[in-house]
Amino acid sequence: MNKTSLDKLRLFFLGLESRYADNEAIFLSFEVRFKAGLKTFKGQALPNGEGTLSYNFGGVTRLLPWKEVLADVLTEASRYEELTATYKERGSALIITATPKNVGMTTQALKTEIGEEAKETSTLLNRNYWIKATEAPELLKAIGIMSPDGKIRNDKIRKYNQIDHYVELLEKNFEALKRQSTVTIVDVGCGKSYLSFVLNYYLTEVKRMKCHFIGIDISEGVIAASRAIQQQLGYRNMEFHAMDVKDFQSDRKINVVLSLHACDTATDMALAFGVAKEADFIVAVPCCHKEMLRTYHYAPFEGILKHGILKARMADTLTDGLRGLLLEEHGYEVSIVEYISPLETPKNLMIRALRTGKPNEASRKEAEDLIRALGIYPAFRYHLDQYTYGNLHDLDVLP
User: Fold this and answer.
1) Which part of the chain is the Methyltransferase domain (predicted)?
2) Looking at beta carbons, which pairs linking 296-299 to residues 24 or more positions away fall under 8 Å?
3) Which residue, of 54, 67, 210, 275, has the fewest CB within 10 Å?
């Protein structure tokens, strides 16, 4: 290859050097193909999880930093007539072609194709999916929605609908966060982290946003399961911690806090964490509500609340209503909506809170009046107080 083409190739590689530095967490591979006459020689660099790349060429594998891989390829290119270099990251590929006459680059979308049988299966589902079975089969297989042969499992269609609709409802909120260099998302009470994996795929490979996910759960077992799925998918922009969320510390700015079906006061812990970290966006889909049911009373409603089922339903409504007021008090714009049909699941309310930074005095007063009237100390307030004042266990204020 002549000097003019090598100089142009060097400029393209400077761009790749910068791109890798920005997108290392979603880098997949770098493949090169040299051509001399009728002979072709191939090489490949893959991440090894140790901060370097495993670069194989000429039957020899070396561990090299990215900059040295590019330097090695440039040196080899001077000995051959043509080069095709393919830089792959999640969702896209850059293809550089170099010949003695020209050097150019094209971009391609990376999509995993599946068989016609799976495509036919997906059309039976009555929904225009945001997470499409034809484009995200590896993800859907890893989280158990799709079978190994590429069919959506009949017993997982409901779960597929729920997660996909969740993405649909949050899409505009994430779009508003695009101005952030990297969006950090914490999934509190993450379980097996299905929602985080789906959002990771959508934000990274569809929206082309830089993001970092942190999953937190008290259970070692589910964290181990999440890590196994992460390894299977190769999602390196994730980390998982088996711990209580109140003990979690990070130097990262927390942009988004998620909580999907965290039981009872675990939802309150997630909301308090989000408020304490001044997260830009908090979203929770509560599960069971038990805490207030055990503690609240309201004399004017005694004739109604003597019926256990009505007292339980009222407790559910009051719990989520107070959560909304307390979020507003601390500078969030709140909406509480049904995110999916109650026929799918009775736990179908979604609390969305967008930070404005302007505390709402009217909401604070309304929350205080309601708390006094009901004779309660709601878990959300308790956990917020812990972040504000420190450990309250020694005080006589536990709910």
Assistant:
1) 158-293
2) 296/374, 296/375, 296/376, 297/374, 297/375, 298/373, 298/374
3) 67
Residue 388 to residue 362: CA distance in whole angstroms: 21
- Averaged pLDDT, 374-391: 88
pLDDT tens readout for residues 175-220: 888 888 899 999 999 999 999 999 999 999 999 999 999 999 999 9
* DSSP secondary structure code for residue 146 in this structure: B
Domain residue spans of the chain: 3-109, 116-389
Give CATH for domain 116-389. 3.40.50.150
Identify the band that residue 112 occupies on the pLDDT scale cut at 50, 70 and 90: low
For residue 99, what are the CA distances in angstroms to 7, 17, 120, 249, 310? 12, 21, 43, 51, 77
Residues 313 and 354 sit within 8 Å (Cβ to Cβ): no
**CA geometry: angle 186, 127, 237, nearest 5 deg:** 25
Q: What is the pTM of this model?
A: 0.87
Sign of CA dihedral 161, 163, 167, 170: positive
